Amino acid sequence: xxxxxxxxxxxxxxxxxxxxxxxxxxxxxxxxxxxxxxxxxxxxxxxxxxxxxxxxxxxxxxxxxxxxxxxxxxxxxxxxxxxxxxxxxxxxxxxxxxxxxxxxxxxxxxxxxxxxxxxxxxxxxxxxxxxxxxxxxxxxxxxxxxxxxxxxxxxxxxxxxxxxxxxxxxxxxxxxxxxxxxxxxxxxxxxxxxxxxxxxxxxxxxxxxxxxxxxxxxxxxxxxxxxxxxxxxxxxxxxxxxxxxxxxxxxxxxxxxxxxxxxxxxxxxxxxxxxxxxxxxxxxxxxxxxxxxxxxxxxxxxxxxxxxxxxxxxxxxxxxxxxxxxxxxxxxxxxxxxxxxxxxxxxxxxxxxxxxxxxxxxxxxxxxxxxxxxxxxxxxxxxxxxxxxxxxxxxxxxxxxxxxxxxxx
Length: 409
Hints:
Helix content is about 35%, strand content about 25%. It is α+β, with helices and mostly antiparallel strands.
């Protein structure tokens, strides 16, 4: 491909471009020399395919943590991932400080059930150090036969390293779930795949058309590693009437792509709280940033992950490349790359300690207390979420905030 275009470039280019072309040839000559040295003298014999794949991975991964080469096998797996069903442990990972870092565990997966948390560092896989291991190599090791165990060595904060054994399973991601707690609709989005917006709209329609619709909503984006840009835009649009959602800017300053909301807030302006944490990344941050900048939602939790770059998948003859081509910006024009979304109200992780074993005495405790004739209706049975709220302080605070805003409105 290079040899085909170079003569034309030389013919129409300036002296400066001619010098650039000579330098390109010189660098390619160096690459060719190194390639042949490795091919002929490396301690282990490598095929041309293996060498080329390693060279491509080295070039792309040296650019940033999110650019990479995918051979045909990995590319097919990625296509299954975005469709919402794949095999493995159920964690989104990245590389950091020569180790593998957990961006977030996916809901209802082996990793999440085993207690893996956002921010954990994986130092060993089945006793093998991950130092300088590529993401592809780590993923290849973690994916395997369904039911087969793998041991992850975890470093968490200042704790001593510890091992966690996890059995691989088929990961089927139901990206949207909901609960109805104290008249508040809790919408949980665990990832942004092709099913997310459709699932979200279906749930909201069901809740809004019920005999007892929610007074407001909590949109839980904690430990959501992101996913498809188009889905993050359409999810934001669910709650907005108008305005910019996100803009994408590439290398050329003139190349700005703006995504805007269409008219139609599906929850009709009801109170909305968005929960985020350090495991909320990429598409999650687009949604949180858009709703925050438009004053459509109160953002609660802790600062998000800070992935503000855009990757495109470019199919090639032997697979595909994932290439960072732009950065995205919130409606206010801010980039969250390596910074993250700051919550409006910081709510740390904690457990709610409810004190309910103390003496109380009310009017109804008198022996001959008069009955209340206005409360003779049949009580509505609701699922008991007391234990959930006691163990999830952030969600408890978010639900209280929705109820407070609803009362004030």
